[in-house]
Task: structure prediction
Amino acid sequence: MRQGHGKSRGHMPRLWLMTDERIARADLLRAVARLPRGAAVVVRHYGLDETARLSLFEAVQRLARRRGLVLLLAGPSAQARSWGAQGHHGRSRAPRDRHWLHSAPVHNHRELVTAIRAGAGAVLVSPLFATRSHPGAPPLGAARFAALARCSPVPVIALGGVRRRHAGLVRRLGAHGFAAIDGLAARR
Result:
């Protein structure tokens, strides 16, 4: 099935900020505050203890509510629901709910199939380009990325070394939008 035929494409964010421990808290909050209405934020910060991670999540959540952003928590859907997220990012299955956004990481065709079977409403395909967050990981490149995007029945979000200037390119490659860490959170 051709990419983008998923039901929720019309309301799917085109711009996604992925959090990362490398980005200072103040810089992260500034990046969230700069996002346009309707963008998504995925709080990862796996290395923090649960109390510190919840504190960061709540700070991002306050900004997200004011800015009209979609907030997801990386990890199990049950934890994301209990923290008040609007969705979760990960491989775990979530109960079907048209108000819940489930995104999943995808690096190859096998992971795409797994994500779709788990009920993902969007897939973050990576790495399109070389990236600081995963040094040494070979990038997919344009041809392999486009091939995965064509196979996806749900919106594809490009991730990995993507910057705002790549928005047109990722659309031509079949992506609905793009996600970034440094491309959106770097100091300006």
In short: Helices lie at 25-34, 50-67, 77-83, 109-117, 141-151, 167-172, 182-185. Residues 1-9 have pLDDT under 50 and may be disordered. The chain has one domain: 7-185. Strands lie at 15-18, 40-43, 70-74, 87-89, 101-106, 122-125, 156-158, 177-180.
